[in-house]
Amino acid sequence: MLRTVLLVTVLFAGSLQGALAAGEYMVVFTKAGSFDDAKDAVEMAITERGMVVNNVSHVGEMLERTGKDLGNSRQIFLKAEALEFCSAVVSRKMMEADPDNIVYCPYVISVYVVPEKPHEVRVAYRRPQITGSPASQQALKAVDELLSGIIKDALK
Predict the structure, then answer these.
(1) For residues 6 and 16, is the Cβ–Cβ distance under 8 A?
(2) Listed residue (142, 147, 137, 146) closest to 97, CA to CA
């Protein structure tokens, strides 16, 4: 399957280095610094918007633990966690426009560090596919803007 690859260049004040090349299905930002600082900043940016992180998935730890059981010793992440949350306002508009948009909820922002770049934190989200009626498209664009805005604020 052929995928269009976008290169999004985003420069912010401080040490934010920009967005990595990503498909239309995801957005990945990078920043020099520590995993814990980036994760805390993302969580703060979420809560400052009146939302609550419902769950933190410890993806890196799970892969490390299960990799040993499967006989696979390759380390994929130094650290990797996914923060799940929802917005009553944005989600309601999204699902009022089209109940099938439930598949985009909850929202997830992943924070991770790969072994090849131990001093670079990546913060990413799945971009919702902008489809459906005009109301649905508008609501899904709002979700994309919310997720991108959270990360931009966190990585300032």
Answers:
(1) no
(2) 137
The reported pLDDT for the residue numbered 71 is 87
Q: pTM for this one?
A: 0.84
> Rounded CA gap, 20 and 9, in Å?
8
Rounded-to-integer distance, Cα 19 and Cα 123, Å: 9
pLDDT digits (tens, 9 = 90+) for 38-63: 999 999 999 999 999 999 999 999 99
CA 56 to chain centre: 12
In whole angstroms, give the CA distance from residue 27 to residue 12.
16
pLDDT of residue 6: 27
CATH number of the domain within which 118 lies? 3.30.310.70
- For residue 108, give its domain range: 5-154
